[in-house]
Amino acid sequence: MIIFRLIGESFRFAFDALRQNKLRTMLSLLAITIGIFTIIAVFSAVDTFRNKLQASVDKLGSNTIYVQKWPWSFSDNYPWWKYMNRPQPSLRDFAALRERMENSDGITFEIATSNRTIKYRSNSVEGITISAASQDFNKTWNFELQAGRYFTENENKNGTPVCLIGADIADGLFGGDEPVGKQIQILGRRVTVIGVFKKEGEDMLGTSLDKSVNIPINFAKGILDIQNERYGPQITVRGSDKVSLEEVESELQGLMRSIHRLKPGQEDDFALNKTTILSNQLGKMFDMVNIAGWVIGGFSILVGGFSIANIMFVSVKERTNIIGIQKSLGAKRYFILLQFIFESISLCILGGLLGLLLVYLFSLLIGAIFDFHIILGLNNIMLGISISVVIGTISGFWPAYSASRLDPVEAIRS
């Protein structure tokens, strides 16, 4: 109880000193506030981007592999001419994989064409992406339907003119009317709407289906050259949850080499792309941004630490006679030491809380202007307070130690 009482008295002395010197206190807080604001704002923004990226990866499927002509990442001196000479993924490759692949939950052949216009009577929507996929599209892509149904196997096999449309397209063409069962004009053909994708919103990888139309691949054969490179043909493989992504990739690589009849030692003429490639590259970028936040905020906090140490030395000088009276009345050294350390910590915590408040207000402003909501997480709040406590302890220790070593007689006479 004596210890708690002494700590309480130390805090009371500290807050009295801060209250009596308001202007000096606010000026001392400024650098700490800016430093904490910089670090926590950067960390909060990075955490928000990282979470959105992870959500995008989860939507695509963390165990999904894309067989494509071009890899998603290159080395510094990549031989681009080798990639240029690679063949496009073909329907023959797709049929062989579907027949021989064991560790997969779904395999699709897909193409896409962008910046198209679709019409319904006098209404039209521009800038649409039209994609065509084989039957397992609902197994290789995570999506929900807000109305209607998915393709049947016969519709896909027979190339029936049916489609699934995004929520934004449904709103643009039909307003509040029911879109299912109506015919729209796509690529010069009349196609019946059988389903509407649930609204998803934009994500970091640009994988939203809100402005997309999906048609069966066999129907697309009659109106597009699906093997043309301009449509980006690819084979999407969703690996089985029972095996690791590495096993799926190893099996897929072996099958593709066998299908393309590549000899041992011969380079692959295809790319196996994974969402982890993007997340790892962006993760490295986020780490660099974190370091930049530490460096920029660290300089502000360093300046703030020196400022607070200087203010504490001034405070000790101003209260030397009071310290002498306290020591002559029996105050122990640790009481004087705690009194000034708590004052320094209180200054830094107050500056840290102001910095966190600025981050919160900044996140609200960004959300209101750009519709991008930065999340100030509990971990970043605790980090800001912890940094404030550490800086306060370091900055206040030497002034507090010098105050605790004062001779009471000399202190009173000062």
UniProtKB/TrEMBL annotation:
Keywords attached to this entry:
Cell membrane, Membrane, Transmembrane, Transmembrane helix
Limits of the MacB-like periplasmic core domain: 25-254
TM segments? Answer: 27-46, 291-313, 334-362, 374-398
Q: Which cell locations does it reside in?
A: Cell membrane
Q: What is its main location?
A: membrane
Provide the membrane topology annotation. Multi-pass membrane protein
Q: Where is the ABC3 transporter permease C-terminal domain?
A: 295-408
Q: Which family does it belong to?
A: Belongs to the ABC-4 integral membrane protein family.
Protein name per its UniProtKB record:
ABC transporter permease
Organism of derivation: Pedobacter punctiformis
